[in-house]
Amino acid sequence: MTRRRHGNADVNISLTPMIDIMTVLLAVFMVTTPMLTTGIDLNLPRAGNSALTGNDHAIQISVDAAGRYYVGKTELSLDDAVKRVVAMRGENPDLTIMINGDTAADYGAVMSMMGKLKDAGFQRVGLRTQINAE
Q1: How many structural domains does the chain have?
Q2: Residue 18 falls within a domain, yes or no?
Q3: Are the C-beta atoms of residues 67 and 106 closer than 8 Å to each other?
Q4: φ, ψ for residue 119 (rounded to 5)?
Q5: What confidence tens digit (pLDDT) does each residue in 3-54 have?
Q6: Is 5 within the bounds of a domain?
Q7: Domain contains 19
Q8: Predicted confidence (pLDDT) at residue 92 exceeds the cutoff of 70
């Protein structure tokens, strides 16, 4: 014996919530992606024949010869740079940070950035170098 249902079931799928979510994700990626790969021109220290260049998805923090801090190409104070990177971590908890220190940069400025990042809970922090030219 088969049953028949009386009336029509509403089988339409609303795409509006999915489109809203995809638009927000697109905006987030459009804002954060340029900060991941761009930076300022630095004279990186040379360290042997295998350079620590970082991966393409690491956030680049730069310290220039005058001791100024940059996230991407934006100059920030030490605390503001750490705050910005902490905000980016909300979207990716396994975020990798590469610190690009100019050869003439103060060692203390580079290590201050590394220490603040470690204090903020970042475990994957590295120092970027370039290959020796022989």
Answers
A1: 1
A2: no
A3: yes
A4: -65, -30
A5: 666 666 667 778 888 889 999 888 887 776 655 555 556 555 666 555 444 5
A6: no
A7: no
A8: yes
pLDDT tops 90 at residue 79:
yes
| Exposed/middle/buried for residue 100 (C-beta within 10 Å: 0-12, 13-18, 19+) | buried
Burial label for 126, CB within 10 Å (0-12, 13-18, 19+), is middle
pLDDT of 133 reads 59
Q: Could you tell me if 57 and 36 are in contact, meaning their C-beta atoms sit under 8 angstroms apart?
A: yes
Per-residue pLDDT at 94: 75
Which CATH number belongs to the domain containing residue 84 in this structure? 3.30.420.270
Which residue range forms the structural domain that includes residue 83? 35-127
Q: What is the separation of C-alpha 125 from the centre of its chain, rounded to a whole number of angstroms? A: 11
Q: What span, in angstroms and rounded, lies between the C-alpha atoms of 118 and 35?
A: 20
In degrees, rounded to 5, the angle at the alpha carbon of residue 34 between the alpha carbons of residues 102 and 99 is: 25
In a domain, 12, yes or no: no
Q: Which residue has the tokens 């994957």?
A: 124
Residues 103-118 pLDDT 10s: 888 888 989 999 999 9
